[in-house]
Structure formats: structure tokens, C-alpha cells
Amino acid sequence: MDVLTDEALDLAPCGYFEFTDDGNLVRCNTTLLEQLGFASEELTGRNVETLFTLANRIFYQTHFFPLLKLHGRAEEIFVTLRAKDGSDLPVLINAVRRPAESGFVNVCVAIPVRQRRKYEDEILQAKKVAQKALEENNELITAKEQLEAHRYILDHKLALFKQRNQDLIQLNRVITHDLQEPLRKIMLFVDKLRLDEGIRLSASGEQVIERITKASRLLKDLISGLREFVTFDVTENPPSSVDLNQVVAKARDLVIRETGFGAVDLKMSELPVIEGFGEQLQLLFYHLLSNSVKFRRTDLPTVRVEIRSSIVQDNQFRILKDRYHYVDFVRLVYTDEGQGFDTRYTPGLFQIRKKLDARTEGLGFGLAYCKKIVENHNGSISTESEPGKGTRFIILLPFRQSDQAFI
Amino acid sequence: MNVEMDIIRRSNVKVWGSGSRTLLFAHGFGCDQNMWRFVTPAFENHFRIVTFDYVGCGKSDLTAYHPDRYANLNGYVQDVLEICRTLDLKNVIFVGHSVSSMIGLLASIKEPDRFERLILIGPSPCYINEPPDYVGGFERKDIEELLETMERNYIGWANFLAPVVMNRPDSPHLAEELTESFCSTDPYIAGRFARATFLSDNRRDLPFSRKPTLVMQCSEDLIAPLTVGDYLHRNLPNSRLVVLRATGHCPHLSAPDETIQVMTEYLGTPSLN
Asked: Which CATH superfamily is domain B3-126+201-268 in?
């Protein structure tokens, strides 16, 4: 390290040092060396960070150096230097960048502020106490206001829920009884027409009867499907630990058994165990897999499905604005190589009876169930697809179910 | 004011340059988008450039700062994703410095389609040591001392933060821009950002990363030492590690030429996606 030729600066009552942009200590005055207990050659070729405590090295990298580089100077920066014996030396630094023979040199003076620091400690302490009191007070006021607002919203929502629940009960009664009864009669009379020996129908008459029968059966199935869907909700049982690997495997077996199509090639990473409703989650994968089989590409011998999982943190609050509580979610990406669909249809895809292909079997409740199940778990489901390239579902499910949601 | 404009203004988003690919630059703790000024000119003729300030930093809208949202890195991840959504960005090349490396990584795990690859400058998945298996470089008490140093500097903070018109002999054309206030402005927010940064532990997230990643490590960086770079490289699938000749934690400030050169080389390689 170069020695200062200017005796006045070398022995000035302040520390003086210079360093380059890559951190090399170029010069140092005797005052600083004495204050820190180093010999000149001990600092030769060393990095300027050597002078700082570990924590202050972070500060140097994140604040001091960027400030100096971007502004060209820094004033009254408080840092703690570290002496050779490990003791601390609090100083205030003024620094300026100057052009040098090659590039720039950063010139600093440091004045010890041991006494000042004691006063500052007291000021800081008092400030902290005041700040804390203020924050708590502000928090309390905000919390109170929010609570008041939430109470009102909650009350309003409860009223709406109550009304909707009554509507549902009525609807359910109409569906289960009032709608079933005329239908039963229609089917009865049709049977009578067909079986009654006294009535002879023409060939076209027979056809009409056949179609009435078919339509009535579909209506009957739809009514019972709708009833199940409406009454399907959070179970009485509290959520429990569910191994998603098992749930998916069971759903797959069920789909193979029901469709008679065995060539389901399921590739998945190790899925986690999450808290939830096992039967519902099994139904979720049942519907997804069942769709993959139903809408498989006929030119491929197998149905290939991949499920990949990762862990992400997401906000637990889904509706309330300005509320944040991040918790762990499993993010599942379900991909098949089936027929896929046009993204135009995405918005309504999870609604009941939004069947994209009217020719396929099934009532069109599958994806509506999927959405209902995922939302029962306070999760989310979205999809994207391209005709001929398969379908992808992205499902987020929280690892834990909050207790309050099931009171 | 619609939501899009709100986010652009809130995060002080700047978009310029020309090219079909987008470079999204995310600043680190302690600074703002100004710190990219030495690097971005090299790319603006071939890329669309996006820079921004995290909420609570630089010239962002401080009233949008919500303590719960930014209590950990998740709120900052949200900032990045909201900007991507607002600008309808897909397949961006994310360039993150320091803590922004993990912020970008988490964003790419949450919404993979938004990202093509990641360039991480001085990243660390965890700053605190966890003996015997992990050396992050710091103990908790070091972080407490850092917070204290920051607080002390905020006592006479006016000098540190006030807009200063500077004479910049090395690049006089920048003088005017430098009237912008420097870096973080609110001591309370800066302290919380420091905590969110240095107490973060994202080691478990590394294996979920799917994007090609360049880890740029400085040869002497105490905030992200070489052991941390090695750890990242071992645990990040699809990653490449380059150790720069540059020292310190801010190569884009101290050695912009080398930083640009390494980035350019990596950007010339085909995406592995």
C-alpha cells in the first residue's frame, strides 16, 4: 500500500483511506492504522471490506458503494469499523469519487463518533418506543375500522346466504318432488301407450314413443344429477390428512373399471400429503381422468396423463382486498394428450352442462364438480388447451385447511 | 384510473428498447432501478427492456406498501407477476440482482409461462448459516447489526436521501437523471425489506425450478460467497454457473463491461425449453 507523502494528511486527526471500484485499498493514513491497530503492510492488497464489521460489509455493498458509484459522493454515513483486535470503532464517513490514473478512486475520511453514538442510542431508543406506540395505535385504529366494515359485510353476506339457502331448499323441493311427479306420469303414460294391447301404433308412431322415452330418461337423470350437485357440499367430517398419490391411484382404478379402457399411462412426481376431504379429492381426479379417457385421441393407443407438483406460497385471502397471509399451496399441473379444446370455451368450461361436444356421453357435471371441490378446499383451478394438443389443468390446493372455515 | 395504469405508476415501470424478446430487470435490496443504468444501454437495440421499482423502493407509490403483503418475499413476487400480467409479458428473460434472484425464481415457479430463462446476479437462497450442512455467510446477530446500521444512518438521513444534483465527470449526460432520489426512502420500509431479504430461506424451492438459469457469481462476494453459488448450481436444475472476475456484490455497478459480456454470451445460447 502506498504511503501518504503529505505529512499533514497522514497525521490529521481523522482516518483517511482510498479504494478502487473493485474494492482494493490503495492508501491509508497513519491515524487510521493506529486507530485500528494495523501495520501498513498488513492491509496491503486487502479489500476495503476488511475495515468493516461483517454486518457493515453488507451495508457497504448494498448502500454505501452503490450510493458512491451513482452519486459520486456520500456524506455522514455511519458505519462500524473493525479493529485488528476485533473491537468496534463507530465512525462517520464522508466520501467522494475522483478520476485516477486508471479508472476511479474512492476517497474517504472517517471520524470516530463513540460519544455521539451514546446520545444517538438514547435518541434511537426513544424513537423506537414512540414509533412502536404510534404503530400499535395506528394498527388498532385501522383494525377497529376494518372490523366494523367487515362486520357489516359479513352481516350482509350472511343475509344473502340465508336467502340463497332458502332458495336452494325450495329449488330442491321442486326438483325432487314437483318436477319428478309430472315426469313420472309422462313415462307411465308412454309405457301404457306402448304396452297396452288395445292400441296399435304405426311405425312412425313407435319412433315418436321411443324418442319420448329417451328424452324422459335423460330428464330423469339430469334431475337426479342436479339434485346431487346442489346437495354436494362440505362434508360433516373435519378435514384429514390425504395422500394425493393414493387418491389419484384410486381415481384411476375407478375410471378404468367404469370405462373399460385400461391403457391409462399415468406419470407423476411424488405428490404430497395435504389436509382435505379425501372422497372429494378422489372425485376431483376421477372427473379429470374420466375426461381424459373420454376425450382421448383415437389415433393414440394409450391415454397419457402427467401430474407434476411443486410447492408455492399464495395468499390465503381470496376475496377480501388488502388482506395478505401467505401459506403453502401445492401447485398441481395435470396434462393430457387428448383432443383438447378451443380456448374460446375456457370461460364457461367449469359450469354445469357446458359440454363442448354434445355427442359424448355423460351429463356434463364433471368439471363443475372439480371447481366445487377445489373451492371447498379454498383452492383454485384453471385450464388451458389447444385443439389436438391436449389439455392442461393448474390446480392450487392449500396444505392446511383453516379451522374457521368449517365452523 | 384503471388497474393497468395503477400498476405501471405504482411500481414506476419503465419500458423501452426494441426487439422481440424482453429483458425484465429487477433491482436488489438497498437500491432501485437506477442501478441498471450501466448495463441496459448495451441491450436496448436488441431487446425490449423493462425496469421497475419494488413497492417501497425508489419512486414507487409508497402508499401502496402493505406491511403484511411485503412481510416476506411473496409480496415482491406478486409485484413481478402483476407487472408481467399488466404488460402481458410471456417468455421474458428475467435478470435479478441479489434478493431479486429468489423473487424471480419464485415467480417463475408460480407462473412458468411468463418466463423463458433467468439470469441471477449474486443470488443466495439463504443468508443465515445453518450448521453443519449449510453456510450462508451470516449469523442472525449480523443481520440485527445491519438493521442497526441502517437505522443510525436514517437519523441524519436527509443527506443520504435528498435529491442531489451531481457533477458526474465520467458520464455528464447522467447528471440530470441523478436528481432522482437515491434508493429506498422510508426507513420503516427499508428495515422490513432488509428482514424479508436476509431472513428468507428458499432452499426448498430450488428443485421446483424448471427454467434455464444463469448464476453469475462474483469472485469475492461476502453477501453471496462462492460456496453459496456452488450450492445453488448443484440444487438448481438446468443451471449454469459463471464466476466473474469482478469482486463485491454489485458487478453491474463495479464491472458493467464484464457483466454485459457474460449476459450477452448467455443470451446468445438457444433456450433449452
From this structure: Alpha/Beta hydrolase fold, catalytic domain (3.40.50.1820)
Is ipTM strictly over 0.85?
Answer: no
Q: Which residues of chain B lie closer than 8 angstroms to A55, CB-CB?
A: 138, 142-146, 148-149
Q: Quote the strand ranges of A100-229, DSSP E.
A: 104-112
Positive or negative: CA dihedral A255, A259, A260, A263? negative
Rg, Å, chain B Cα set: 18
pLDDT tens-digit map of B226-258: 999 999 999 999 999 999 999 889 899 889 999
A240 contacts chain B (CB < 8 A): no
Closest B-chain CA to A117: B152
Residue B98 appears among annotated catalytic residues: yes
Write A229-234 long-range contacts (CB < 8 A, 24+). Answer: A229/A352, A229/A365, A229/A368, A229/A369, A229/A372, A230/A168, A230/A171, A230/A172, A230/A175, A231/A172, A232/A369, A232/A372, A233/A376, A234/A277, A234/A376, A234/A406
Q: What is the pLDDT of residues A71-112, one digit of tens each?
A: 888 888 899 999 999 999 999 999 999 998 888 999 999 999
* B202 to chain A: closest CA residue: A312
The average pLDDT across A131-135 equals: 84
Asked if omega into A398 is within 30° of 0 (cis), the reply is no
Of B53, B97, B239, B249, the active-site residue reads B249
Instruction: Reply yes or no on whether the pLDDT at B177 is more than 90.
Output: no
Q: Under the phi-then-psi rule, with left for phi > 0, alpha for psi from -120 to 50, and beta for the rest, what region is B11?
A: alpha
Which chain A positions have a beta carbon within 8 Å of B150's beta carbon?
A: 59, 63
Q: What is the DSSP string of B24-58?
A: EEE--TT--GGGGTTTGGGTTTTSEEEE---TTST
Contact A324 B71 (CB under 8 A): yes
Domain-wise residue ranges, chain B: 3-126+201-268
B178 vs A contacts (CB less than 8 Å): 70-71
